[in-house]
Amino acid sequence: MVTFDAGETLAERFRSHMGHSSSLYGYAMRGMADDWEAGGPTREACRGWEDSPNGTMVQLRFLAGVFRLVLAGAAPELVPYYPCLGGTLPPDGVWPVMRQVVGRHTEQVHEALAIVPQTNEPGRSTALLVGLFDAVEAWGLDRIRLIEVGASGGLNLHVDRFRYDGPGWSWGPPDSPLVLHTQAPGVTPRAFEIVERLGCDVAPVDAASHEGALHLRSFVWPWQLERHERLTGALAVAAAYPVVVERAGAGEFLQCVLADPPADGVLTVVWQSITRMYWPATESARVAALIEDARSRMPLAHVSMEHADTPDAADAELAVDGRVLGVVHPHGIPLWVRPGTHA
Ligand SMILES: C[S@@+](CC[C@H](N)C(=O)[O-])C[C@H]1O[C@@H](n2cnc3c(N)ncnc32)[C@H](O)[C@@H]1O
């Protein structure tokens, strides 16, 4: 697995993450590294984390904490550096300004280090939708019980409340606050109705709440404007139709919700995206066994969008019941291509 924070000291790890990147976080991380070595506010904010294992990504936790301060209005002088907030200043000047903010809010940044980086990418609904079309066609059933494991804030459980388009096709409510331009050719839409939505995560986020929205936004890099726009649309949907994501591991949850079949004529769809890489091997084995076992009791399709088991696989695979339908950008869009056409 690629580690972004190689090195002995926190300063070395901060410098290694983005190398010579000229992005906002590249400049910020190099400033943090110098400041940590000089004993500045970064050193104080990171106290107790000096010996955390590589892979803890202290720098991402730190910058998400700063981002939440900016989003909450506590650091207005940083707004001009954050493109997603309309900022247009070049990033090379950010560190001295950010250092002052960290000095003023050292304890809040320190507390932010306890929060594990976590995203919820609604662009992945594109893959889920294509998987759902495939499952509906294969089973001839159009009433869906949708179960998502590793759902984070459950944004992709709203798959039918977003609008999609691609060459020659479109689907979903025309007035949805989120429109996903898939660029996916050859998709044949199918009609379906989601009659039940269930989700779990070991660290569930209430995406309908202000705090939950802030949490999810703070882990999306501030210059990724399209991702922020998608999140804004999806969060508006989540606020209008709150779903409960239960606090549970994937296996524990499936054991419970797959115990009994749904009503006649309902297709159970188990969905997962970019979560398996965080599971222990025992979780993966348990999930696979529970799904296989449930197939004997109910119509069930397993739709997954996960990285292939090859080292450093950049893209993800969309599969239905293990049958690979296509290669997907890890954020679901803009790229979705059928096998053989991927450059
Ligand atoms: C990269 S996020 C993806 C979230 C969502 N599936 C998406 O595509 O936007 C991975 C999620 O998996 C969750 N997770 C990690 N291990 C888990 C487990 N054993 N069972 C359930 N969820 C888990 C994390 O808490 C996190 O919310």
TrEMBL record:
Top-level lineage group: Bacteria
InterPro entries for this protein: UCP012608
Cross-referenced Pfam families: DUF2332 (PF10094)
Protein name in the entry: DUF2332 domain-containing protein
Organism in which the protein naturally occurs: Candidatus Phosphoribacter hodrii
